[in-house]
Amino acid sequence: MNWYLEVLKKYAVFTGRAHRKEYWYYFLINFLIITALLLVDNMLGTLDKETGVGLVSSLYMLAVLLPGLAVAVRRLHDIGRSGWWVLLSLIPIIGPIILIFFLIQDSMPGDNAYGPNPKEATA
């Protein structure tokens, strides 16, 4: 839960680097929250069956859009890539697969153009 809160504290910080843990724990907790909110939407009757999105879950997803983009950019910085690579997700099918491949890679050792290695800072 601390990783999730850490990402929210850095709401719109697109500089620096983020560990794999920071990104993937944020992703996991975010997924669980959205799933729970979709159940709430279903119980409230605000879930649109065609789109699979409801009012409450939509508001939450809108609120965490910017922190999600920011942590993805920082994660890309951690492997030495520009944050612009996040736009790969806009290419159908192959783009998200390539982006996931980038996001699961280990950190670049030492400092890079985006700052010091967060693994070495916490070790």
Automatic annotation (TrEMBL):
Record keywords, A-Z: Membrane, Transmembrane, Transmembrane helix
Residue spans crossing the bilayer: 23-40, 52-72, 84-104
Which GO CC annotations does the UniProt entry carry?
Answer: plasma membrane
- The organism's superkingdom is given as Bacteria
Name recorded for this polypeptide: DUF805 domain-containing protein
Taxonomic source organism:
Halochromatium glycolicum
